[in-house]
Amino acid sequence: MLNFHVLTLFPDMIDNILKTSIIGRAIANGHILTEVVNIRDFTNSKHKKVDDYPYGGGAGMLLQAQPIYDAYLSIMNNIKDKAPRVVYVTPQGKLFNQQMAKELAEEENIVLLCGHYEGIDERVLLEIVTDNISIGDYVLTGGELPAMVVVDAVSRMVPGVLSNASSGENESLSNFLLEYPQYSRPEVWQDRRVPEILLSGDHAKIDKWRCEQAVMRTKERRPDLYEKYLNEG
Ligand code: ADE
């Protein structure tokens, strides 16, 4: 059973995403567990303050070390795992990919730290973080969306979360290929016909066609991925 622990200043944002659709069902069915911890609940300050000005000056406020560390300790006090992966989602992290999602799905506990404002006091990051992960080369206003991207991608690799028919293992990207195009009824829509081969009933031919389409599509749309497919796929 995989247990996510999310450290955030905006628990509502996380709760809303987690209760929806496939992830909501995975939680209801006991395939994954999620705990959302509000960093603000752990502040020692009278006015529930969690941020302060950066030493040396500069724009914006920083999240202070103490509330984050105490929130982290509250999680550690409740789990047996003494060295869980602690993921800080940050544009400075390693670029997230399918391979990393697959690997994280093997863990028992994953702590996700969501930053906000201009950043976090470096000392608490050095103290607790094991993995820095970025979801792409762009900057978001906070770590909540990236943390949910990681929870979603990792959860669907946990056995039982997806139906067997659509298990996350034998699908696009795990072999460095994009998906082939798909069609449903009707046979003709806006003068566009479903490719004849898909109506042939010849499954060997259909598999071959789909594979060719996946390769063509990858070469055209994601030349970087296509190189990996040629070398490692
Ligand atoms: N926080 C802000 N932007 C981010 C990104 N691109 N990836 C991960 N965390 C972030």
Structure description:
The chain is of the alpha/beta class. The chain is about 35% helix and about 20% strand. The chain is built from eight helices and nine strands. The protein has a five-stranded parallel sheet with strand order 2-1-6-5-7, with helices on both faces. Strands 3-4 form a two-stranded antiparallel ribbon. A two-stranded antiparallel sheet has the order 8-9. A hairpin with a 2-residue loop joins strand 8 (about 190) and strand 9 (about 190-195). Helix 7 crosses helix 8. The longest helix has 19 residues, at about 205-220. The chain is elongated and about 70 Å long. The mean pLDDT is about 95. It binds adenine. Adenine (ADE) binds next to strand 5. Adenine binds near residues 89, 90, 134 and 140.
Low-confidence blocks of residues: none
Q: What characterizes the major β-sheet?
A: 5 strands, parallel
Question: Using only CA atoms, what is the Rg?
Answer: 22 Å
- Helix-strand pattern: EHHEEEHEHEHEHEEHH
Bound molecules: adenine
Strand order of the largest sheet: 2-1-6-5-7
Q: What labels would you give this structure?
A:
single chain; 233 residues; two-stranded antiparallel ribbon; elongated; binds adenine
